[in-house]
Write a structure and sequence with these properties.
Length: 88
Amino acid sequence: MVLMSAQGQLSDLLQALFVRAELECVLEGIEHGLATSLPGETASAKHVAQEAAGLLMRTGYVFQTCLWEALRQARPLQRRRIDAVACL
């Protein structure tokens, strides 16, 4: 059994729940200008999610409730899935 890193799980969650424009809105809601670090418009959904997860790890937002609340607010029906990743 292969265990995925917390960053990998966050990346998979972001890719599964959000298209790029929605992810940009979530990031901007957390901190103005945060979404500007995402790769260009031609980047794949996987690459965008990986970069977003890396950004959230580097900035420490994965340890702050504002990230998880923003994700829950954007996708209330996916709360369990979000909470499962938030617990890591």
